[in-house]
TrEMBL record:
Its main location: membrane. The keyword Protease does not apply. Residues 47-189 form the Arabinosyltransferas concanavalin like domain. This is Arabinosyltransferase domain-containing protein. Keywords: Cell membrane, Cell wall biogenesis/degradation, Glycosyltransferase, Membrane, Transferase, Transmembrane, Transmembrane helix. It is a multi-pass membrane protein. Residues 840-968 form the Arabinosyltransferase C-terminal domain. It comes from the Bacteria. InterPro entries: Arabino_trans_C, Arabino_trans_central, Arabino_trans_N, EmbABC_dom1. It comes from Pseudonocardia charpentierae. It is found in: Cell membrane. Arabinosyl transferase responsible for the polymerization of arabinose into the arabinan of arabinogalactan. Residues 193-654 form the Arabinofuranosyltransferase central domain.
């Protein structure tokens, strides 16, 4: 480890009287700050108490989808006279829900001849026999027990939590003198705001932290002065212009991440919901303690939610990361980091990491910057024995940890430099106290710096709510345990998967090769101009950071983006020490030959694995990838990966043979190494340049050549005043029946098909049964179909059996020009209506359907139609509220996400969903996964309204649904009052339907 000599420190004794006073002051302020931070999560919070009351006068069908599904407590009453009537007395779930919606288990009171049958949370609690005469039946339910009583006397008592799920209030009982009523308190445990005491603790902690920093700075001033930043750090360089240009181009044309819609939905809902909750699953539990970056994104979205505007912070973070690495980190690594060509190598390394991993709304660029800042603070503390940089590093590390579980990697620099840091802290006798507690001031100061992260972790939540949020996320699941971390690397090498895209492989695999190479160099005697101490700490930090990724619940390769800063530095160092200049400068020819041969062998294997990947991007960025990018790079029919591996193997074999031959003839000392033309860094750099160019230029190419939707087209439209993203280029088929083609005046089919009707997602269309054999009449094509501007659309419903044939025949006059199949891949496996969109062959003017299937087939196909289209911006004007499913939420900035008010979910009219072949949005409507809109979904039927992308009408880009209530529904106005959370009833644990709770 590299650390300053002891002579650099001027304190030779326990310090002066002023030093002693400062140490005591540091101890006092540090303890006060740390205690304020530690008390902050446990400080009281303010919480709304929301109560709903219902009687039959409010309506026989009321929408009240609670979120979470169960109330804190519920009471219901009914007169025995009304209860004696047979039928549904009271239900908190609709008696006739949409059959395609997943059920919830509510409270159901049913009158029977034997009495009132009581069911709650799917459990039959029993039947209450009613005595003669008038009486009142009451039910009370909370987390501890559910009790049914007659005139106040308990007759059924079930201990434990069987609170019902509530989607609404429904009754079929007579209303006259029924004394029927229901009252419930919604669960608002997460809808909290800081109390005055909590705010005071935060202010006290921040003031204490600022005071602590000032005291440490004053103490550090007694040491020899050092520059804060290197000379000339502010001067722009040509390489900075290149990196800035790359980031600017990528900001416009580049792909985002698969989770941009997920995070966009969360941050844009923050204002209406009152806290950063997971609006797509997990019962809308808060994202805390790992979510504070959502707050600045929310503030940013208030200016504009346009896609390019929301992507700008990550591009700016990339620029900051580049500045930190190139200006501050690389020079710290020794002469190799300060060579004239090093910044250009660093630019290539940075582009290799940033482009495939860091543009978008995910927290990885934040973590990358935070980790580099923490590393720089630690290195400055090691180099100068100053305490303030270490305190700042711990503060930054804590804030980075509060971003996401993987942000724990920001603590790695402190662990990697533990020995020199402790050496420096022990030498700072001016901040020591006499006796056994001599290190107490330093411990208090550093503890306070690290504990300040609790202000971000529990900014508007209490400790109990945080614990419950963590519990329910673990209860529902959705991630993988730490010991399955290998899955991340398996995905990196998975073919035909965006997780193993060529850019991600290049960044991670080549950096792993660089780690091995730099480690080998540092283990030898000739370090090629690398400062051993900082370089070792950098490698250890990167290794510990990779280990820290194990705590992230999902094992996606996207998380590697958090390593961008560290990876850039290590990759740069590896390319420098295995470059021509470094190998030529080695005095030992044997070492030079060994590094060259081993480096080329590793480069051949790693570059082969990289080039076996594909240039793949998620969602809209993957719509128009060039043909070359849809498969691994080829030369003819041979993969370039195979060629690279074969050529590399031959070169390494020849080098080994040459070395053996020369060693058999000459002594090693006589073998001078002067030929570095085959330096391993050269082919690696060529591959990295090629991969980077492939990614950037492929998306730049579609940006200027495509007329549909691309990120670049979105940015251009936004600049021209249209920020509505994908919505602006979509058209909606409001009424599929309006476009059915007219029958052509051609001879009737000899064997007609069997007529039937087809449900096209809420609209009934005339169609044919996929049963038996026959042909439909010929239908005249629309002029726009003949011109190729509109497809012929046939909706297929049901599941055709194996061997069933359903084709569309296109003809000119009586001459059949083409036969296109309508079955096969692409149909919904559950038989849901699927639109098959066919481009008319040139010259055709008529189309008909032909069937050859089993006589008892159950599938059906609508008659062909020319869709009548309306711009989506007219169907859903700007500001329209809709559920924006997470895969698509990012590209619909002009629609307002349907809110989740405290304790409830809304009843929206619209749902914007991903393509039919993407089932991932189902989590939002699945009770077992804590889908926040599962209750709302029970109350409506979905009417599908097909959408068509401008200039690419055959693509299923987005699904639009209109939500229509299953019956006329009314709503209730709640009673709201704000109280301290400790004053409210114990809400118990959140309960997830379909999951068995542990005792």
């Amino acid at each position: 480890m590299l650390s300053p000599p002891r002579s650099a420190l001027r304190h030779a004794d326990a310090g002066t009287r002023s030093d002693s006073r400062r140490a005591r002051l540091v101890l006092a302020v540090g303890l006060l700050t740390a205690l304020a931070a530690l008390a902050f999560p446990f400080a009281p919070v303010r919480q709304p108490e929301i109560t709903y009351s219902w009687t039959p006068a409010d309506g026989a069908a009321v929408a009240l989808p609670l979120m979470p599904y169960q109330p804190v407590q519920l009471t219901a009453t009914i007169s025995c006279t009304a209860a004696r009537s047979a039928g549904l007395l009271l239900s908190t779930v609709p008696p006739r829900p949409d059959p395609t919606a997943l059920p919830l288990d509510g409270l159901v009171l049913v009158g029977t001849p034997a009495g009132v049958q009581v069911t709650s949370a799917g459990l039959d609690l029993g039947t209450v026999a009613l005595p003669p005469g008038d009486c009142t039946l009451s039910l009370g339910s909370n987390a501890a027990a559910t009790v049914v009583a007659l005139d106040g006397t308990p007759v059924l008592n079930h201990l434990g939590d069987v609170r019902p799920d509530v989607a609404g209030v429904f009754t079929e009982a007579p209303t006259a003198d029924a004394r029927l009523a229901l009252s419930l308190t919604a669960d608002t445990r997460f809808s909290t705001t800081p109390s005055p005491l909590k705010i005071a603790l935060a202010v006290l902690c921040l003031l204490g932290l600022a005071t602590l920093f000032a005291l440490l700075r004053a103490a550090d001033r007694t040491l020899p002065p050092v520059r804060l930043l290197p000379r000339g750090w502010w001067r722009p360089r040509p390489v900075d212009a290149v990196v800035t240009t790359l980031l600017a181009v990528w900001w416009v044309v580049g792909s985002g991440t698969v989770d941009d819609g997920y995070i966009a939905g969360i941050v844009r809902s923050r204002g209406d919901n009152g806290f950063v909750g997971n609006v797509y699953r997990w019962l809308n539990a808060p994202e805390a303690p790992f979510s504070w970056f959502s707050e600045p994104y929310h503030w940013w979205s208030l200016i504009s939610a346009a896609t390019p505007w929301m992507r700008l912070p990550s591009a700016l973070l990339g620029l900051l990361c580049w500045f930190l690495v190139s200006r501050l980190l690389l020079p710290r690594l020794g002469r190799a980091g300060r060579l004239r060509g090093t910044p250009w190598i660093a630019a290539l390394a940075f582009g290799t990491w940033f482009v495939p991993l860091d543009l978008g709304l995910r927290p990885e660029p934040w973590v990358a910057v935070g980790t580099v800042l923490a590393l720089l603070g630690v290195e400055r503390a090691v180099a100068t024995w100053r305490v303030l940089p270490l305190a700042v590093a711990l503060t930054v590390a804590g804030a980075t940890t509060a971003l996401t579980p993987g942000g724990l990697m920001a603590v790695a620099p402190v662990l990697a430099a533990a020995v020199p840091l402790l050496r420096g802290l022990r030498a700072r006798t001016d901040l020591h106290m006499p006796g056994a507690w001599r290190a107490a001031p330093l411990v208090a100061a550093l503890l306070a710096a690290a504990a300040s992260a609790l202000l971000l972790m529990a900014a508007d939540q209490g400790a109990a709510a945080l614990a419950e949020a963590v519990r329910v996320r673990g209860r529902i699941g959705g991630g993988r345990p730490w010991y399955e971390e290998f899955e991340r690397y398996a995905l990196l090498l998975a073919p035909d998967d965006v997780q193993g895209a060529i850019g991600r492989r290049a960044a991670v695999l080549v950096t792993l090769l660089a780690v091995a190479g730099v480690t080998w160099v540092l283990a030898g005697r000739q370090h090629s101009g690398v400062a051993a101490g900082p370089a070792r700490r950098l490698l250890v930090t990167l290794g510990l950071s990779a280990v820290a990724l194990m705590v992230s619940p999902t094992k996606w390769t996207q998380h590697f983006g958090a390593l961008t800063g560290l990876g850039t530095a290590v990759l740069t160092l590896g390319l420098v020490v295995f470059g021509r200049r470094a190998l030529t400068a080695l005095r030992d020819p044997v070492t030079a030959r060994q590094r060259r041969t081993a480096g080329l062998a590793g480069a051949a294997v790693v570059c082969g694995l990289v080039l076996a990947g594909q240039n793949m991007w998620p969602f809209v960025s993957g719509w128009y990838t060039p043909t070359f990018s849809t498969v691994p790079p080829l030369v003819g029919t041979v993969p370039i990966a195979t060629i690279v591996l074969a050529v590399g193997g031959v070169v390494v074999a020849l080098l080994l043979a040459r070395s053996v031959w020369r060693q058999s003839t000459y002594r090693d000392a006589e073998l001078l190494y002067r030929d570095a033309r085959l330096a391993p860094a050269v082919p690696v750099a060529v591959v990295l340049v090629a991969v980077l160019a492939l990614q950037v230029l492929s998306l730049a190419r579609i940006a200027v050549r495509q007329h549909g939707y691309t990120p670049a087209a979105d940015a251009l439209a936004t600049a021209q005043g249209d920020p509505c993203g994908l919505q602006s280029v979509l058209q909606v088929e409001i009424d599929p029946a309006a476009g059915v083609l007219a029958v052509d005046a051609q001879p009737a089919a000899a064997q007609p098909t069997r007529p039937t009707t087809v449900d096209a997602g809420g609209t009934t269309l005339p169609g044919v049964a996929v049963a038996g054999a026959g042909q439909s009449p010929w239908f005249a094509l629309d002029d726009r179909q003949r011109a190729g501007a509109l497809p012929v659309v046939v909706t297929v419903s049901g599941v055709p059996r194996a061997g069933d044939l359903l084709d569309a025949e296109f003809a000119r006059g009586t001459e059949v020009l083409a036969t296109l199949p309508l079955t096969g891949p692409g149909l919904a496996p559950d038989g849901a209506p699927t639109d098959r969109r066919l481009i008319v062959p040139a010259g055709a003017d008529a189309v008909r359907l032909t069937v050859a299937a089993a006589v008892d087939g159950t599938a059906a196909a609508s008659l062909p139609r020319a869709p009548v289209l309306t711009p989506m911006i007219q169907v859903l004007p700007r500001g329209t509220r809709a559920i924006l499913d997470w895969p698509v939420a990012f590209v619909f900035p002009c629609l307002t996400p349907e809110p989740l008010p405290p304790g409830t979910a809304g009843l929206p009219q619209w749902r914007v969903a991903p393509p039919a072949d993407d089932p991932s949005a189902a989590i939002t409507y699945t009770p077992g996964l804590g889908g926040p809109f599962a209750g709302s979904r029970l109350l409506v039927t979905q009417r599908r309204m097909p959408t068509y992308l401008r200039d690419d009408p055959t693509r299923d880009g987005v699904q639009l649904y209109r939500w229509e209530p299953v019956e006329p529904l009314r709503t209730l106005t709640p009673t709201v009052r704000v109280r301290d959370a400790g004053d409210l009833p114990d809400p118990g644990h959140l309960r997830v339907p379909q999951l068995i709770e542990s005792s």
